[in-house]
What we know:
This protein is α+β, with helices and mostly antiparallel strands. It contains three helices and six strands; from the N terminus they run ββαββααββ. A four-stranded antiparallel sheet has the order 2-1-3-4, covered by helices on one side. The radius of gyration is 19 Å and the shape is globular.
Amino acid sequence: MIKIVNLEKVYYLKNKRTQKALINVNLELPDKGLVLICGKSGSGKTTLLNILGGLDYQTNGDIYVDDKRIEEKDLDSYRSNYSSFVFQDLNLIEEHDLRIKAQRNAGTVRRTGSTPCFPDTVSMHRPGR
């Protein structure tokens, strides 16, 4: 079971301003089943998922997995053993994406700002297959 106690996430902005993304979140998630997190845009859903996935760390509060408190120093082990993510976007690093390099060299990729634009649908495959 995952237990969240008094979770808070504060982002520190320029001009010494702060933005509170999560305020006093308390939640228990079961070992099995499906959990849906719904809310308005900007309500903290992605921030909560990033913290639960070990991609970010809370400003205050505690997260317990199987009654063990997860600390910032434990995040690597937590991500390896408990967490996985399917990103909404590809989040590719251009320098390491052979598909982008090959298409750019063939002249089939054009840029708009910092994002490559593909003229055709691109299929993905797993390495080694």
